[in-house]
Specification:
Rossmann fold, 27% strand, Aminopeptidase, single chain
């Protein structure tokens, strides 16, 4: 939406400060504290000047309503409208729908409206459309299971294209219509809708309901993302080659206090934390030209459901500097996400400064200090964490 710069914008925004949430990230997971009696939390993405926002919030005083709009000149008009109606169940975020999961916690939202989003007609810009699969996957993160997206547009091409995006992102379609108002006006109109309907343009509408998205095994995604290598679980026939790789990194053996031996390798392959099943554990080697160039060990759904724990990533000492570790570290968060996980954790020895810097570059941050016990000796570790990464975004 192109808009002329509003006069006195700051003052006008200020006068709506009761409705305007300036630090939405601080409200993540806490939105219902604004209205504890709220039955549902409804979101609107790209509310524009807010006719739909104001009328919907007024029609549903039992629900909490949050509107996201990235153009403050439009949002201020929407806020003024809601203020004039004396609404106390509606709040505004001057922000971007692309980062919804930084404003809302998983499962916090019941319903999302996308009304007359910018169509971005050129194919090269299709990823900017608010109904692009990548955006929809982002909305999934904050919508509860069974939560809905209500989508309206005058743009038939955008609509037909969007009908393919919803199922790809795990939304079941219903209420699909290409002429919503064929038999008289249905529901509350937006500013754009009123204009297009007045011009005789048919309005398209559909509802997408969040369904479970089939998880892709982490290993399958790693293989797809790193086609240059063979990635496979370490079997008996691979043990000598993997041991040879581990033996090359003398510094790691000294630092961790655990020397690579065949016995230790067998123990590591079988080791499982309490209450974990063997199916959660994967110890893979990454092969190039018949030799392993790296080993990677992870646990799924550990130490909490939907967290992937990285036990070890070691690149062949003679292959360092080629970016192998970086490539693997970039792929794991995406594979974890496709595998149904929302975060990743690992423990990095406090003394392993190079390792710590490597994981920081890969987006991990210190969560807390912890301890590990190797060969009876306690060592301090940094527990590091990062979010899984939605590949489609
Ligand atoms: C065509 S207007 C429609 C406004 C309103 N929904 C209506 O139907 O009247 C699209 C609106 O979405 C907003 N918008 C576009 N991309 C956005 C994004 N990523 N995050 C938040 N708002 C966005 C634009 O600033 C604009 O106000």
């Amino acid at each position: 939406m192109r808009m002329r710069k509003k006069k006195n914008l700051e003052q006008r925004m200020e006068s709506c400060s009761a409705l305007w949430v300036r630090e939405p990230a601080q409200m993540r997971g806490l939105w219902r504290t604004k209205m504890p009696q709220a039955k549902r939390l409804r979101l609107e993405l790209g509310c524009g000047k807010g006719r739909f926002t104001a009328e919907t919030a007024a029609a549903h005083p039992e629900d909490l309503y949050v509107a996201v709009e990235r153009v403050p000149d439009a949002m201020v008009i929407a806020m003024e409208r809601c203020k004039a109606l004396g609404l106390s169940n509606v709040f505004f975020i001057d922000g971007d729908a692309a980062v919804l999961d930084t404003y809302f916690a998983p499962d916090e939202v019941d319903l999302i409206y996308i009304n007359f989003c910018d169509p971005w007609p050129s194919v090269k810009h299709s990823r900017r459309r608010l109904t692009y699969e990548g955006f929809l996957r982002g909305y999934r993160k904050v919508l509860r299971d069974g939560g809905e997206i209500h989508f309206k547009t005058d743009n038939r091409d955008l609509f037909e294209w969007s009908l393919f995006q919803f199922p790809k992102a795990g939304f079941a379609l219903s209420e699909v219509t290409r002429n919503l108002h064929a038999n008289g006006v249905q529901g509350i109109m937006t500013d754009y809708e009123e204009k297009f309907h007045g011009m005789g343009t048919p309005i398209n509408r559909c509802v997408g309901t969040k369904e479970a998205l089939p998880d892709v095994p982490v290993l399958d995604t790693l293989r797809r993302l790193m086609p240059q290598w063979e990635v496979r679980e370490v079997g008996e026939e691979d043990m000598q080659a993997v041991l040879a790789l581990l033996e090359k990194d003398r510094a790691f053996g000294e630092l961790s206090g655990r020397q690579p031996t065949m016995e230790n390798l067998r123990d590591d392959l079988a080791a499982l934390p309490p209450r974990c099943l063997p199916s959660q554990k994967h110890y893979v080697a990454i092969w190039e030209g018949g030799a392993p160039v790296a080993v990677l060990d992870w646990l799924e759904h550990y130490p909490r459901e939907r967290t992937l724990w990285i036990g070890l990533l070691m690149v062949d000492y003679n292959q360092r500097g080629r970016g192998i570790g970086r490539t693997v570290a970039d792929a794991i968060p995406k594979a974890a996400c496709a595998g149904g996980m929302d975060s990743l954790r690992l423990a990095c020895l406090e003394e392993n400064q190079a390792g710590h810097a490597f994981w920081e570059r890969a987006g991990f941050r210190n969560l807390r200090m912890g301890e590990t016990q190797t060969e009876g000796e306690r060592q301090s570790v940094w527990i590091m964490e990062r979010l899984a990464e939605n590949e489609a975004l």
